[in-house]
Amino acid sequence: MKMKLEYDKEVDAGYIYIVDKIKEGEAVKTIEL
Asked: How distant is the alpha carbon of residue 24 from its chain centre?
């Protein structure tokens, strides 16, 4: 399973989006720093 870290400055600089690509689709987890 590959994990991609996306840093979205447009939404909030205090959030990091972790996108897990799985067979069924994409599982998105949001972590607040």
From this structure: 16
